Amino acid sequence: MKKPVVMIVEDEQIVALDLQAKLRAFGYPDTVLASSGQEAVEKAVEAQPDLVLMDIMLEGEMDGLEAAARIREHLKSPIIFLTSHADDETTARAMNVLPDSTIRFVMKPIQEMIFKTTLETILQRPAG
Amino acid sequence: MSLSKRPFSVRVRLGMLVLLALAPVVGLLFYAAQEQGRESASNARSKALDLVKIAALAQEYLVTETSQLLSFAAGNPAVQSGDPAACNAYLAELLKQYPLYTSLVVADLKGDLYCSAIPLAGPTNVAARPHFQRAVATREFTVGGYSVGQTTGKAILSFGSPVISPQGELKGVAFAGLDLSWLNGLITTTQLQLPPGSVLHVVDSNGIILARYLNPQEWVGKTVLEQPLVQHILAARGEGTVDGPSLDGIPSLFAFTFLGPPTTTGSVYVAVGIPQSLAYAPARAALQRNLLGLGVAAAVALAVVWFGIELVVTRPVRVLIRATQRVAAGDLKARSGLNPRNVGELGQLAEAFDRMALDLEEREGERARIEQDRLQLTEERVRRARSETLLEEVQHRVKNSLQVAASLLSLQADKLQDPAGQTALKESEARLRTMAIVHAKLFAQEGTALLDFGAHLREIVPAMIEAQTEPAKISWQISADQVLLEWDTAVPCALIVNELVTNALKHAFPGGRQGAVQIGLHEEERGRFVLRVRDDGVGFPAHIDYRNSDSLGLQLVQALTKQLHGTIELERGTSTLFTVRFSAIEKRGL
Predict the structure, then answer these.
(1) ipTM for this prediction
(2) What are the chain B neighbours of A109 within 8 Å (beta carbons)?
(3) Averages of pLDDT over each 10 residues, chain A, 128 residues
């Protein structure tokens, strides 16, 4: 069975590397890194990842929610938002952008077990 | 706006109102003056008529007197005797006593004059005279006609009276001539007080002027039948008054009546003319007086209104207008300052205006205060918003930095080959994450910097156990009150929990041993808390003094407990129980 490809959208490169290492440790070695919303959209179209880890606060004009909406125009992969702003307003915006059940939120700082459980839960879903 | 459309001032309007109010009075006075004029004119006519009646009465009296005089003279022996000398002397003497008469003569039955008061120029016969014939025929007193003397220019009225002897024998006729100029005396001597310029005419039915007062030589003997006055008098055939031009052309009031009984030459009239300018002078004077009085009264009224209005209306109105203009220009302290008791309704208006200005000023003041407060509030909000934005930014960067630091440690740990070093780095990462999680939770909620530490325990402890142990080996039980802690207490407390739980998971259940971990957190008294961490593992090694351990974790627990002004106790037995009592730290001046 082909290993799922996970896309990491994170402008803090160290955090991105840490996530990459954690994913590798969890058994997901195939990852694609993007550090801005624009780059994320382009690479997502190109790489067609099975899962997107999206930081909401991104550098540049496009934030994570907008980038996720753009990506969703091209592929149906689930999206996990990484945020320290899981307040009502952010959640409402996310639900408005992606009104489906294939999104999750993981709070920063990331607690390893919660992160791992969330990953496994969402990747066991049938794709698409 | 053009000048012609400019509205009249209050003063002009009130002045017009006063004039309008005076109009009926003027009308009434004018009517009264005219009435008075008519009455005066009527009085003048009546007075003039009285005068001619007096003249007529006097004439009748004179006729009666002449009848008696001639009767008396005819009976005198000198006249009866027929002796011209004695008769002449007697009549001359008699004429002296009666100067009104121009002549006294006696004629015989043939009509020859044989006796005269004034010597005769020659033989004179009067047999053809009507009144001679009538006197002879009737043997009674006879009034002859008027005639104007060609030489004297005087109008003479002749009378005849029969001369009868004591035996009753008719012997002749005695005649007397009466000069009508006596009427002038009537005007000048009576108390009628005719105004100067008044005239008197005696006119016979042929329109011949027999006598006239004023310039008789110019008019007596002339026929003025065509004059409107004369026409009117002859047509009236009696007494009356008429307005018209006099013979001199002066507009006059005339009164006329018959003068004496009808004569042999027809009726004779006497007419008095008074110039209209004088006849009606009292009426006109009264009218002028009234109108002048009215004019003066109106002028006084206007002056009173003009200056009174200035005092009671215009000046207060100007004061009000000035105050209104000042208020309109923004000077809300402007007041009319008028005394409401002094100027009536205007005073009430001024009082209402002053109240309104005061209200405006107070409201403006209130509005300015509210505006000032609002500005201050807005500035405060902007400051607070800036502070909050700055704080949010700082918090975000702190969280990010903690996440980056934790990631760095994690990455480093992955690279180490030495298991002890790897563990040390993983523990350090866990401590950093513990701090980062508390930080994130504290600042994720707006408006409060308190963390519900009980809820935090229920979330964090299971994740720790699942991350550090094999699945389903270790169960947990958490009993925690809602304990609200600030940053300075929450972070050390979270680190203590992290160290004690990690320590238990690390050492209490060796070799895949199953067991349970119990965590309790309660508020013993206000601001004083107790944290209990119990495990039912293999028990805390008896040879280890937890107060002097090499374990960094236990050293941290002690240091942090001290930081929280707390105490730590360890109970050893079938289970291991760490009890930490601590207080909430209150730091100020951040």
Answers:
(1) 0.77
(2) 399, 402-403, 406, 432-433, 436-437, 440
(3) 90 89 92 93 95 88 90 90 72 76 80 86 64
